[in-house]
């Protein structure tokens, strides 16, 4: 049986203290009371609390002193402050000082119940999120406990230890690469390389060289032999994203790899044996692609030995709350900022938005919000696209004045490279991408700078 939440109430007005205690005991919380600030500080050190509810103006010690002590010595315990002024500035002062939320006097009973329940739920989610982050520190991890995600976890657990070829299906931005990485980390190849590649990123000629390598003199500029990604992933796992975009000629080469476990470098004649597990992903219907003549049927069969489906974010219910806390915390750490507080109004916008871009869109929205937020509080104004969507009743696209996803990606890679002293290997590990992805992006930016247009 789960123990009731333990709440400390600090209030020097006897009538208000009695009211607060009566209401919260009626909600089955364990309540401890303090009649002034000094007594509240003493109570804090007598036992653990799940929540502190404190008036700001008290004798002997103020609610801000109670907040400061709680934040410093018991950082996992949220504090809700009670202020006599129902003004936005008072709310900002309270939250900016580290409070989880605030209530205005005279205290509304409905608001009291809702605020306390919300603060306790955020604490629960934050602790759950922290345990997940601690389990795989410094790496991107799958987050969520909705039914479709729990089913996905079971499927991953079953297939990860095998060498079966896996096809991951799902909408763009839903987290297919993260699923692939999770499979690789739980496989017997976990200590070997994991190489990720987007098949839609390069033209056909470059795609072949990138995947299979080339010999010296294979084309202009090929000054020496070059290992492809299949050879680089030897003994480990290669993840081929956007597999439905592979050109027809390349499809036959991929089929050879899957059937014969060998590659032939561009300009070479001798086959090279490779021992690599292949995981691919697509947001397309491969059966429809086969019917339309754009995908070889035999390749589709070879790729789809085991298939997994990643649910879209709109079907994941309250997972969005856990994801929001996790991603906001992650980007705050990346920017060297404390974990932000997300206002009730901002969380409402996040929870009600349809997220056509899925987790990737959520992450980019939170990255911007964390960067733009003031005093560690994310407000609706920090989520302008969501606010505009709420007004129009439909998702709003970013206009030309906003940075593109590519631009946001570039900025964050630059930020992490600065953090690692331009060490691409360390940066790639932090970002959860392949080192070559950073090199390709740098090369692409260099070509843009050289373009006279």
Describe the model.
It is built from 19 helices and 14 strands. The chain is α/β, with parallel strands linked by helices and 453 residues long. It has 4 domains: 130 residues, Response regulator (Rossmann fold, 3-Layer(aba) Sandwich), CATH 3.40.50.2300; 165 residues, Rossmann fold, CATH 3.40.50; 79 residues, Helicase, Ruva Protein, domain 3 (Orthogonal Bundle); 46 residues, Arc Repressor Mutant, subunit A (Orthogonal Bundle), CATH 1.10.10. Helix 4 links the parallel strand 4 and strand 5. Helix 10 packs across helix 12. The longest helix has 27 residues. About 3% of the residues have low confidence.
Key terms for this structure?
453 residues; alpha/beta; Rossmann fold; Helicase, Ruva Protein, domain 3; 4 domains; 5-stranded parallel β-sheet; 19 helices; 14 strands; elongated
Would you identify the regions where 5 or more consecutive residues have pLDDT less than 50? 133-138, 397-405
Classify the fold: give the CATH topology of the largest domain: Rossmann fold
CATH-scheme architecture of the largest domain:
3-Layer(aba) Sandwich
What form results from the Cα inertia axes? elongated
Mean pLDDT: 83
Tally of contiguous helical segments = 19
The span between the termini is 69 Å
The CATH homology group name of the largest domain: P-loop containing nucleotide triphosphate hydrolases
Major sheet summary line = 5 strands, parallel
Total individual domains: 4
| Total beta-strand segments | 14
Kindly provide the radius of gyration, computed on alpha-carbon positions and rounded to a whole number of angstroms: 27 Å
């Amino acid at each position: 049986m789960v123990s009731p939440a333990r709440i400390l109430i600090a209030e020097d007005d006897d009538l208000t203290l009695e009211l607060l205690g009566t209401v919260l005991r009626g909600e089955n919380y364990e309540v401890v009371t303090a009649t002034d600030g000094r007594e509240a500080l003493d109570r804090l050190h007598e036992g653990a609390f799940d929540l502190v509810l404190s008036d700001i103006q008290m004798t002997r010690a103020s609610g801000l002193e109670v907040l400061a002590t709680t934040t410093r010595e018991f950082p996992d315990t949220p504090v809700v402050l009670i202020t006599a002024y129902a003004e936005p500035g008072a709310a900002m002062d309270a939250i900016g000082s580290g409070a989880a939320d605030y209530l205005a006097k005279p205290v509304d009973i409905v608001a009291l119940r809702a605020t306390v329940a919300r603060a306790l739920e955020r604490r629960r989610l934050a602790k759950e999120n922290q345990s997940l982050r601690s389990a795989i520190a410094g790496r991107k991890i799958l987050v969520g406990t909705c039914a479709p995600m729990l089913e996905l976890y079971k499927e991953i657990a079953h297939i990860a230890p095998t060498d079966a070829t896996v096809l991951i299906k799902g909408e763009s931005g839903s987290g297919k690469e993260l699923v692939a990485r999770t499979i690789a980390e739980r496989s017997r190849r976990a200590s070997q390389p994991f190489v990720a590649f987007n098949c839609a990123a390069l033209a056909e000629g470059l795609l072949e060289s990138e995947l299979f390598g080339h010999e010296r003199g294979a084309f202009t500029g090929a000054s020496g032999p070059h290992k492809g990604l299949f050879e680089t992933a030897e003994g480990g796992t290669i993840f081929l994203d956007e597999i439905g975009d592979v050109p027809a000629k390349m499809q036959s080469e991929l089929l050879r790899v899957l059937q014969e476990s060998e590659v032939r470098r561009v300009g070479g004649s001798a086959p090279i044996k490779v021992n690599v597990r292949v995981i691919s992903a697509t947001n397309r219907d491969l059966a429809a692609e086969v019917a339309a003549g754009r995908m070889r049927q035999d390749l589709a069969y070879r790729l789809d030995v085991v298939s997994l489906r990643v649910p879209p974010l709109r079907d994941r219910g309250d997972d969005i709350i856990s994801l929001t806390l996790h991603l906001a915390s992650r980007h705050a750490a990346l920017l060297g900022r404390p974990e932000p507080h997300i206002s009730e109004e901002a969380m409402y916008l996040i929870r009600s938005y349809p997220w056509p871009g899925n987790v990737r869109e959520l992450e980019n929205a939170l990255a911007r919000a964390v960067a733009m937020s003031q005093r560690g509080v994310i407000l609706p104004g920090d989520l302008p696209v969501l606010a505009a969507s709420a007004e129009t009743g439909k998702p709003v696209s970013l206009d030309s004045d906003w940075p593109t996803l590519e631009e946001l990606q570039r900025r964050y890679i630059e930020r992490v490279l600065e953090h690692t002293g331009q060490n691409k290997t360390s940066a790639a590990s932090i970002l959860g991408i392949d080192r070559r992805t950073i090199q390709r992006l740098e090369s692409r930016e260099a070509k843009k700078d050289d373009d006279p247009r």
